[in-house]
Amino acid sequence: MGLDDLNNSVTSAILRAEALPAGSWAAQRAFREVADLEEEIATIVGARTVDGEIARVGAVAAALSAGEPLRAIQLAERYLDTLSDGARAKLEELAREADAEIQREIADGPSVEPIRFLRAT
After folding, report:
1. N or C: where does the chain have the smaller number of CB atoms within 10 Å of the terminal CB?
2. CA distance between the termini of the chain
3. Taking the C-alpha atoms of 52, 97, 69 and 102 in order, what is their torsion angle to the nearest 10 degrees?
4. Does some domain include residue 65?
5. What pLDDT tens digit does each residue of the chain (121 aa) get?
6. Which domain holds residue 51?
7. Is 111 domain-assigned?
């Protein structure tokens, strides 16, 4: 798929994702597609271009919207070194949001308790 096709696909995917109920499984799936497309664009377009920065920030933001905070952090770390100061600041902000989401999930998550099994004699 060429860059023009990717840009058209990501625009369509964003419009579909934003039309769905926020946080729904369908919206998360659609944002996963956006993140994949943005990541693909980021590999094609140079990081020091406007399109490259938009794709990198878009991939991280979409991963976060897809309910994938760990992926968002990993992408942000991968992209941080190659961006302008403004884009780097946005990625750092998104990475902090992703980390906060992970911390909330840890705090709100169910506790796991061991179950004792007795042997039948």
Report:
1. C
2. 65
3. 160
4. yes
5. 788 899 999 999 999 999 999 889 999 999 999 999 999 999 999 888 899 999 999 999 999 999 999 999 999 999 988 788 899 999 999 999 999 999 998 888 776 777 777 777 6
6. 3-106
7. no
Question: In 1-121, where does DSSP find H-type helix?
Answer: 3-19, 25-44, 50-65, 69-79, 85-108
CATH number of the CATH domain containing 91: 1.25.40
Length of the chain: 121
Domain count, the chain: 1
Q: Which token pair is 18? A: 């934003």
Amino acid at 106: I
**Secondary structure class of 109 (helix, strand, coil):** coil
Q: Could you tell me which residues come within 8 angstroms of residue 53 by beta carbon, excluding any fewer than 6 positions away?
A: 47, 83, 84, 87
